[in-house]
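Q: I'm writing up a methods section and want to include an example of the input and output format. Could you take the sequence below and give the corresponding predicted structure tokens, formatted cleanly so I can copy it straight into the document?
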Amino acid sequence: MKKLFLLVALFSFVFSATSQVIPGMGGQNGGEIKDPVDWEGAIKKLSDTEFELSITGYIDDNWHVYSQYTPNEGIGPLPLSMDFLDKDVDFTLKGKLEESETHRTFSDVWGFDEVYFSEMVTLTQKIELSNPAITVIKAELFYQVCIDVCLNEERYIVFDLSSNEVKFIENFDDFEAYKSKEIAKTKVEESNKNDSESGSSSDSKGLWAIFFIAFSFGFAALLTPCVFPMIPLTVSFFTKQSKTRAAGIKNAIMYGVFIIVIYVLLGSVIVGIFGADALNALSTNVWFNVIFFLLLVFFAVSFLGAFEITLPQSWSNKVDSQADRGGIIGIFFMALALAIVSFSCTGPIVGTLLVESASKGGIAPIIGMLGFSLAIALPFALFAMFPGWMNSLPKSGGWLNTVKVFLGFLELALAFKFLSNADLVLQLHWLEREIFLAIWIAIFGALALYLFGKIKLPHDSNENHISVGRLTLGLLVMAFTIYLIPGIWGAPLKLISGFPPPLNYSEAPYGVGYTKLSSASSGSNNDILPEGAELGPHDIIAFNDYETGLAYAKKVNKPILLDFTGYACVNCRKMEERVWANPHVLGLLNSEIVLISLYVDDKRSLPKEEQYTSETTGKRIKSIGNKWSDFQIKNYRTNAQPYYVLMSLDEKNLNAPIGYTPDIEQYTNWLREGIGNYK
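A: Here is the clean output for your methods example:
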């Protein structure tokens, strides 16, 4: 029963955790561009008709904002400007716009002095009302903030004289709605803050998912033949060599801590070499996905018994000699010896984990190694504290190799997801949905036969029977294999949505024997597709070009759903296959909006005359995907996918944009809110 519990728990935990979030395959994990200046405002009443209006910006370290008095020679930095609407009608400006202390530095590049603010900028303007009934003063602020690159920023400001409040809003048309509902969603400043918090929350959730997935990988590594037998040997060594039980516990805990330190250092090295942001950019890179496909196949074949991945024997000998020194240094080298000796089992798992977490970017490799090493280190400390627990451990045997082979099959299946990513990004249609599912059916079918004892691999023990645990796990795998089969004929397979290519990326997009979905369910027809449109998921009419989709929306007078997505985005596919497939959501998408899907990983090159250098990031925009990614960063200060924006025909947001939202009711309510605001 112990073996049954361990094997079933391993299968269900590892697979379910991995199916929820696979870092780096396009989750809500993109980088975010945050305005380096935080603004606040103040109103000072000088008399019944005279007011002093001011705004203060707090500038991030090393950034600077150019003054309104920066020379403007047609090239070079752009000066700040603040334009008060309706001036000389409802009120008059008294004097010039005053600004706080500036810095002046000669620029070798431009050949003249740059005048700029650092750390803080304050702008002050005195006004006198011509119409005493006026309670609102509106102003538009433009400025350029620079470090290694320059960002052009605009702020729409409302000075509410009646409430003595200063509001930074998205557009002036929404101010009355803002005032009546007493909400701050239309403030640009708060919108950016919410986006930042949402991104941070998403990143936090992503990192927690990586931690738990890594912990499950560590648990799996713990059950391999290279690590599991080391538990009683190591714990016995510490308890016997220590003069007191307390000393033995202390040494064992230190041993576990050093295991964690060694693996976390490995994750830190990965981040240090490639950089936190560069790793995330690799997630949709074709070569990245192809190389990692080959790596995972290499690791899988090793686990299946073709060969063992080992480090040089001289490394192990040198480390062992240092471990005999005793004390803290000796314990550290014992932990290092475990990492080296067990590398043939842990190497492929660590490699797979680093592949996944590296594609996520940021500190994900460090978090991954922390979770992985914690799962390995905990048993050594716990069994040292409670030696009696070791009597309850199952004995080493052939079942440990079964775990290793089981992991090999899982790695082989996961490898084809990376190959599928590369194929999707290039739109080659080499690994379409049917072929992908056929490969998975073959892999998991072979795994089921292995668990039933019908297939023997090099390191398997010669047993005439299989355990109840192995039989149970084999039945689970066989059931999963049978579940996959209808997918070849068009079944949605929601259990693994996001892993295989989408339904429309297949030889038979509507299922074998069908040429299109019924008009009752799709609400669209190939024969009446608008110019520039195509059939997207579930036969929704979709545009892949912003201007074309906007023009059509104006023609049919419907609001627009901007869908920032990616071919290799797992969470995008989950939204399309689980949420968009809901009848209520699908009805709204078909009849109430115009869908514009912009693929940020489209590698097709832009024509030479359409290529440009981004004003926001300073990068050269060469591909269609670059164009839509830059469009998202410039307009929404985020580069996460999926990302959904409902907007009106004058390109104003109808409600707050959202990202990955698997809750169908929440997503439906969000759609209805935006559509209702449009009407």
